[in-house]
Amino acid sequence: MKHIHAGKVRDLYEVDGDILLVASDRVSVYDVSLPTSIPDKGALLNQLSAWWFEKMAGVVPNHVLSTTDVPAEFAGRAMRCKPLKMIQVECIARGYLTGLGMREYQRDGKVSGVELPAGLVEADKLPEPIFTPTTKISDTGHDEFMTFADVVNDIGKETADRIRDLTLEVYTKGAEHAAKNGIIIADTKIEFGFDADGVLTLGDEVLTSDSSRFWPADDWRPGRTQHAFDKQFVRDWSASTGWDKTPPGPAIPDEIVEATRRRYTEVYERITGNSWVPGGGHA
């Protein structure tokens, strides 16, 4: 087993020509890994992703080969995957206006070049979901909005059309399922690559609390900050400390750690219908 990459949250290993994708308990906000981990976070992310990959298998092929054929030390928090040549575009679908999308809208009335109605407020539902891609790699080290024309210019119209349509389909199907369980998926980020046979494939993670915004439907009120079952809770806490968003990040207090873990656990249970067992598994 060869360690090939350490990301802010995930570690990649090569095993017999496959990729072992291991989700850690680390938490990253504003592109900075914080010094405090969240117990069970990696396993929750991994198993929620695996659940969604299986559910979306009829929509788009994915990179998962096995969630059980992994080293014992990574059981529950790793998946064996096909190597992919990743497309350097972060594919974001938005059904609600918040976060960076809200700031972009406030500045010029559009997000990634998509014109939106005037007068929208924080957490408003959009008339229909929109595709708002960002760069996967930029000179600043932060994601930056791209227009769809930028994506076409970078990867060609055929592939651009496919990743836009698939992103919106994955988001829509995921949002419909979550809504039945009282969860709003406000937005999500997914990634695609090509496998060894040139097949467009869904990779990385899908519809998790690190890659999506999850809100309780019964508490949704436009015009204010929403209760977050996702990483936004940690972002909001870190911003409240006065931290300047440059390394090193602040240590997370015990009460914020536990509240984050509870939120990740609750949304996992509500979406999947599984009861989470502390320590990295489900009943």
Automatic annotation (TrEMBL):
Domain SAICAR synthetase/ADE2 N-terminal: start-end pairs: 4-247
GO cellular component terms, semicolon-separated: cytoplasm
GO terms of biological process kind: 'de novo' IMP biosynthetic process
Enzyme class: ligase
Recorded superkingdom: Bacteria
Catalytic activity: 5-amino-1-(5-phospho-D-ribosyl)imidazole-4-carboxylate + L-aspartate + ATP = (2S)-2-[5-amino-1-(5-phospho-beta-D-ribosyl)imidazole-4-carboxamido]succinate + ADP + phosphate + 2 H(+)
Keywords, sorted A to Z: ATP-binding, Ligase, Nucleotide-binding, Purine biosynthesis
Family: Belongs to the SAICAR synthetase family.
UniProt protein name: Phosphoribosylaminoimidazole-succinocarboxamide synthase
